[in-house]
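Pasting as-is:
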Amino acid sequence: MSNGTEARPLVALTGATGFVGRATLAALTRAGVEVRALARTVPADRGGAEWVRGDLSDTAALARLVRGSEAVIHVAGLTTAPDAASFEAANVAGTLKVVKAATEAGVPRLVCVSSLAAREPSLSAYGASKERAERLVAASGLDWTIVRPPGVYGPWDRDYLEMFKLARRGVVPVPPPGRSSLIHVQDLAELLVALLPGGEAVTHRTFEPDDGHAGGWSHRELARVIGWAVGRRPWVIHLPRPLLEQASRADSLVRRSRARLTKDRVGYMTHPDWVARPEFAVPEALWRPKIPTREGLRATARWYREKGWL
């Protein structure tokens, strides 16, 4: 007979203070999951989680993080870095340390957040690091699932914020013509939680989720819909790769380590196809996106304004 005090499942979460990690922590909490989270700096608002101070290079902290957990959701990693060595340290060596900690602690399940950039590792140091991390996960012997999100937007995101700011000014420069998929961060977080039990349909599988918008969004369409979200109809300009590379050098000079448009990013931004492939779709019985992108972008614009970011 249940006494009403049954133990909740414990999940270890890396990257819990980042953009996707915040949303994942909230989704885990809503699902009634007990969370132990890793962070360099423990936030004042602990969000109902148990926190372990440390990072992906800290073997002892990772051992404390995963001890007694039923699964690990590995979100932490770098999306922007000044050089390939930084991506290697965070995304490859960091993932290897997470895998090793989980294996040594007897944690059976690993859900790893990768990127669509891993499909084309020759285009960027970032994509190459994610592809190598995926190979480590696949060879781990764990019950693993890899998730390759497309462009992720929503509250706390600073990458698409740049486009919102430009759209409000009336001019949005975009890469050469191409298409990409999108997903709201809350939908992505709910997927990561839905994958936790594992099972035949998801074990040793790689998924490419999206917002359900078949064929993705052209760069022009995305710029226009972001303009609609901020109440403008911006002029959209396709910039050739050489001009984007010049702009990346200027951004690095001005913002240095805080630069968003790096040369490495230009490498994969100018690739024409970042659309999630139907053959890598998540089974609909398990998960489907709930947030239509137009409404999600409009809500994101409202959040930016309320935070004073826009």
